[in-house]
Amino acid sequence: MAKIHMENVESLLERWSQGDESAKNQLVTLLYPELKRVAIRQFSKEKPDHTLQATALLNETYEKLISVEAQWQGKTHFLNLSAKIMRQILVDFARGKQREKRGGDFVRVTLVESSAQTPDEELDIIALDQALAILEQRDPAAASMIEQRAFAGMTNQQIADAQNVSIATVERKIQFAKAWLYKKMHQD
After folding, report:
1. Are 82 and 35 in contact (CB under 8 A)?
2. Residues 94-110: pLDDT tens digits?
3. The dihedral sign for the CA sequence 13, 57, 42, 179
4. pTM of the model
5. Is 183 part of any domain?
6. Confidence band (pLDDT; 50, 70, 90) for 119?
7. Assigned domain for 164 exists
8. Which of 30, 46, 73, 165 is most exposed, with the fewest beta carbons within 10 Å of its own?
């Protein structure tokens, strides 16, 4: 979210927490293009005939975000919640598809920043969700960074800015989390 002035986001989140409906609308208007870009990037990795589209993901995320009655703790809190909402929508969709067809089409996500993708970089979203739930108990910061990367499509720089940590910290945490998740998902 480098293009958006985070001071504006912080101010709008604070006003939203105090019940200012106009701040909620301004924030959503401010962040909508960025959230749309994230949703489009998420689905650029999918098969063209995927039945859940970026617009649907964005609309569901938007609907859930505007219904939140939270005491926002800043941009990190908002970004983490946005990533969690996208994660839950994608997981729910994948579970629904699994019920429709045994072993049906899984929603795929990638943990790498590159737009080039190989089959080895794809993950089953349901298995990732289960492993992330365990990682959240062990290392909440690492789990949050993976969630921001995989579900909100954020770069290391964006995660570092949102978490108020160095890029080196993000890289170390993500490297640890990817190795831990790989091991966890392949041992089961």
Report:
1. yes
2. 777 766 654 445 555 55
3. positive
4. 0.65
5. yes
6. very low
7. yes
8. 73
